[in-house]
Design brief:
This protein has about 120 residues and is mainly α. It is about 40% helix and about 0% strand. The chain is built from 4 helices and no strands.
């Protein structure tokens, strides 16, 4: 392989990397920090849509989440390709906040026992 060809390949790889990083950074920038609270805010969902008090003073319960996101059967259908399916858990119907957090990084409850490669929103 000639030096010119190798140089062109390296430039192409570098450009692809820059575009990929810019796209992923743009996705995070659209929601601020990548936290669910910022994601909701970016979609013009106000705090009062979920919180009953202003300013918000307590966590939102699963029933409130399910008003927009659907119940466990609906969520299980949306995540059926995941193995194990986090919304059809042998643990039963768990509180959404066990995994999903609005104002801090979310947790993968299943990963405590199972090997998963999920990014929990």
């Amino acid at each position: 392989m000639s030096n010119a060809m190798l140089s062109r390949m390296l430039v192409a790889v570098a450009c692809t990397l820059v575009v990929t990083l810019a796209a992923s950074n743009g996705a995070l920038a659209a929601s601020g920090t990548g936290l669910l609270g910022d994601t909701h805010k970016a979609k013009a969902i106000e705090c009062a849509s979920c919180h009953d008090e202003s300013p918000p003073a307590k966590a939102v319960g699963t029933a409130k989440c399910q008003q927009c996101h659907g119940g466990f059967k609906t969520l299980a259908a949306k995540t059926e390709r995941n193995e194990p399916n986090p919304h059809a858990s042998h643990q039963g119907d768990t509180d959404c906040a066990q995994c999903h957090h609005m104002h801090k990084a979310s947790d993968d409850l299943c990963a405590k026992c199972h090997v998963t490669n999920w990014r929990v929103p």
